[in-house]
Amino acid sequence: MNRRKSLKILGASAAGIAGLALVEWKWQLLDGINHKGFFTNREEKLISAIADTIIPEGLPAITPSPEAKPIGALSTGTDIYLRKLFEHCYEKEDQDKIKLQLKALDDKGFLKASKEERQAMLLALNTSEKEEEKEFFALMKEQTIVGFTTVKEVMVDYRHYQIAPGFYTGCADVPAQV
After folding, report:
1. Residue 142 three-state SS
2. Would you list the DSSP string of 111-138?
3. Contact 72, 62 (CB under 8 A)
4. Fewest CB atoms within 10 A around its CB: which of 29, 76, 85, 108?
């Protein structure tokens, strides 16, 4: 094989690889715009806002010590847990109920509301006469608490949980029997 032909093949391969890398980058860019998840971007923001309203960042009661970093539902990834839980672990009819209640909250302007107004909206769901609104509030509150209290930051830093309490001492001398 001559050198010219080899250089053409190498050049074409390099151009092809660069083209594929460019296409992959463009798809990643477009993926953020054309969201393909189970929940829409708006619904994901609503779930995050609900989780943040239930367990906001930096409450003194949940911050382990003054020098510790303040934690809350968003910093521990509880909102991501909720999205994955609802998408993968709930039946279609329950998912539809969740989406319906998220839409109702969005129609009331939940994302644009202040912190106090968000709390009032969620508490209104709890005291509502509609059973589906009460169920939605109970579900969101319960699963937010479960998601928050089972993350590493809370279990280890706040509750001082040890995976294997007690320690194994290998090759220890056994006292002689008298």
Report:
1. helix
2. TTS-HHHHHHHHHHHHT-S-HHHHHHHH
3. yes
4. 29
Nearest to 50 by CA among 177, 147, 155, 151: 147
Which amino acid is residue 178, in one-letter code? V
- Going from the C-alpha of 126 to that of each of 36, 46, 114, 129, 132, the distances in angstroms are 32, 17, 19, 9, 10
d(CA 106, CA 44): 11
Residue carrying the six token digits 């860019």: 29
* pLDDT tens, residue by residue, 11-53: 666 666 666 566 555 555 544 455 567 899 999 999 999 999 9
Cβ 86 vs Cβ 158: under 8 Å: no
Tokens of 134: 């009460």
The Cα 29–Cα 87 span in angstroms is 24
Cβ proximity of 78 and 51 under 8 Å:
yes
